[in-house]
Amino acid sequence: MSVSRALMLTVPLALAWALACPSAQAAPPAPRAEAFQAVLDCRGVTDAARRLACYDAAAGRMETAASKGEIVVVDQAKAREARTQAFGLSVPSLDFITRGLKANDVDRVEGVVSAVSRDASGRWIMELADGAVWRQISDEVLGRDPKPGTKVSIRKAMVGSFMMNVDGQAGIRVHRDR
To answer: So where are the chain's domains?
Structure first.
């Protein structure tokens, strides 16, 4: 088969795949708050005096909106903190805050057990000092029982699951309850 014939067959297939595959398509930009968009719109004003007046007015509207709680400005450190606090929970509504972070920015958290109990099946339920509650969902047995003050490390595992190492022991599979 000639190179040109191969290209004639390959290019349409690649194009069809790109159009059909949602991950290959760019996500539409998230809508912006009106007060923020007004500031961005001022960039298009060519006259310097009018541009400055536009910025002053838009900044005033943005400050008013922020003071009323209509818009919230979050820096990357606060977004990372929010993602860390929500680690292990399915919170799709958090995406607008953490959008600027890398996908693997938070893939492990460390904690200290503040309370521990067992469920009816004898599996561990551990509340951490930050208020997160993790429940053992596997049958692994720990050599040393967790107790308040025990250090834990929780990491993402395969297929959306999580592994917890309790005081350096082998991992147990866990699920975050809250």
So the answer is: 34-67, 108-176
